Inverse folding.
């Protein structure tokens, strides 16, 4: 067995023993040993994509939905650089990835050799661990090194702050094995001609056994204040303790959609309530408890500054405090003893929520044509139980935040770590594949037109590749709709510099990928448009100016309802 094949087979086998079940491969020559080892391993499902950026976000979506590391493989050179945006998102949103970049051996570096760049520490501080694995040699001790390294990499990816791990693997030729892999890719070491057994621990155990599940952290009892509030930001954490805290104390629960805490106890209209100066001034909190990464609205960020005390629930390292208002960081919280859920403060928030909710729904239901905000509200409400919804950055996630009613039974995710629009199609595809492999129901994505165009390669899935049950709903307002509500809207060159009209119908994008396409105009047709099988595209065309005006009308309606 040649050294490159030995390293690849041992590394893949050990990662599978740790729990690896999914891998994404972008084709290339230097990465041949890894690609072939992954394809031959019976425990790993392999996905192949021709575009490294699309491949990396596909892996991100798989790992986000599955909550375990996914291996991502590429050849040397610019291929590895195209992984960088997904690595940054994994870092900020805590998604575990195993980045396996193939590289030229040391004798070819800094010589002008083809497809050779400096890949050492390529992703900087965005990874939890980097190792230059070294060129494989047929000497004793290599197997223990490779297998223990795989276990360390897995452990670093799933540690207290999950994220990406980067292993840079230099392969010398030959890159192709002389013999096919057996059912056990590391069996029969004597025939392989290797100086030591390639096999791992007996009974399929990993080389290094990890510790047991972490113990429940001690909860810190909160002070007995009436004017408390709970903020649930983006993150993959259990929302139940915070729903229970809201039920016990009557404190309003302000939950961003990707917190998955917007259930019966939540204040779904908090974005509009806090945008009302009179309401915000009259509802200054004594205490705010936050969890996850809040940051979706300026109103919520400003509200965090109003609290006299801000308790952040999270790890001592890496907790989210974007406004630098935290006064305490604790691992868990408990309601104050003898808390009363029916205070004047709680009743005031409940009344405001009822009035604002009615005002919003009245405006949105006033027209049969689908607006961007109504689409977000109705899509979230009409998802079947067991569904997954991927929300694109910019306006889709903000419209969900503004209009989504409380509900259970559906999981909402998005790339909120860096909040970029790149890779959103691929992330949604990966999340849908993992969701359905785990026995989940249908998957849906709500994206903007620029996000879809930015990652239309994510729709290109080759024959024989696993395909998701995914309905991609695209709001096409011919450009960057989010800028219409910002200060840039008054600039003389606004349309060219920020509006960026493109004139592309999503039907043409669907035709490029040979996908079913539906154009949706009326709100009553949404349930029928969502039906179908496989990967499919639904387009809703809107106007940026009209959408910005509608959002202003919604705020005016809430202000009037609160003043009544």
């Amino acid at each position: 067995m040649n050294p490159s094949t030995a390293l690849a087979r041992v590394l893949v086998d050990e990662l599978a023993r740790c729990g690896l079940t999914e891998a994404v491969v972008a084709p290339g020559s230097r990465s041949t040993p890894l690609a072939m080892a992954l394809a031959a391993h019976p425990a790993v499902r392999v996905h192949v994509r021709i575009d490294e950026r699309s491949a990396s976000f596909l892996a991100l979506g798989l790992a986000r939905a599955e909550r375990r590391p996914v291996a991502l493989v590429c050849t040397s050179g610019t291929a590895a650089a195209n992984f960088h945006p997904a690595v940054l998102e994994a870092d900020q949103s805590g998604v575990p990835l195993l980045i396996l970049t193939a590289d030229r051996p040391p004798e070819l570096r800094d010589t002008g050799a083809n497809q050779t760049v400096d890949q050492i520490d390529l992703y900087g501080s965005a990874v939890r661990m980097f190792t230059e694995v070294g060129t494989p040699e047929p000497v004793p001790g290599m197997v223990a090194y490779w297998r223990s390294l795989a276990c360390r990499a897995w452990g670093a990816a799933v540690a207290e702050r999950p994220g990406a791990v980067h292993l840079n693997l230099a392969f010398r030729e030959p890159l192709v094995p002389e013999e096919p892999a057996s059912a056990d890719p590391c069996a029969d070491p004597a025939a392989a001609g290797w100086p030591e057994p390639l096999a791992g621990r007996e009974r399929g155990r990993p080389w290094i056994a990890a510790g047991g599940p972490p113990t429940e952290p001690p909860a810190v009892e909160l002070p007995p204040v009436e004017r408390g509030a709970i903020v649930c930001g983006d993150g993959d954490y259990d929302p139940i303790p915070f729903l229970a805290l809201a039920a016990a104390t009557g404190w309003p629960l302000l939950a961003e959609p990707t917190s998955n805490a917007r259930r019966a106890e939540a204040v779904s209209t908090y974005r509009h309530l806090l945008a009302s100066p009179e309401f915000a001034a009259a509802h200054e909190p004594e205490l705010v408890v936050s969890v996850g990464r809040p940051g979706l609205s300026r109103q919520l960020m400003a509200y965090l500054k109003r609290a006299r005390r801000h308790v952040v629930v999270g790890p001592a390292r890496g907790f989210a405090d974007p406004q630098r208002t935290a006064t305490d960081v604790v691992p868990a919280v408990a309601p104050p003893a003898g808390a009363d859920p029916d205070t004047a403060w709680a009743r005031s928030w409940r009344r405001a929520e009822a009035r604002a909710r009615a005002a919003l729904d009245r405006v949105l239901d006033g027209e049969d044509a689908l607006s961007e905000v109504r689409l977000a509200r109705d899509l979230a409400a009409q998802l079947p139980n067991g569904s997954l919804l991927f929300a694109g950055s910019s306006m889709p996630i903000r419209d969900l935040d503004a209009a989504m009613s409380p509900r259970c039974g559906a999981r909402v995710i998005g790339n909120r770590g860096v909040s970029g629009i790149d890779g959103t199609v691929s992330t949604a595809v990966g999340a849908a594949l993992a969701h359905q492999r785990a026995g989940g129901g249908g998957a849906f994505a709500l994206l903007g037109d620029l996000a879809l165009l930015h990652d239309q390669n994510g729709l290109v899935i080759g024959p024989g590749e696993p395909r998701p049950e995914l309905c991609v709903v695209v709001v096409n307002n011919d450009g960057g709709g989010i800028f219409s509500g910002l200060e840039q809207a008054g600039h003389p060159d606004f349309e060219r510099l920020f509006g960026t009209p493109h004139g592309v119908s999503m039907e043409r994008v669907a035709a490029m990928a040979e996908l079913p396409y539906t154009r949706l105009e009326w709100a009553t047709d949404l349930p029928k448009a969502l039906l179908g099988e496989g990967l499919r595209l639904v387009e809703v065309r809107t106007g940026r100016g009209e959408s910005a005006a509608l959002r202003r009308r919604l705020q005016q309606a809430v202000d009037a309802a609160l003043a009544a």
About this structure: The mean pLDDT is 93.
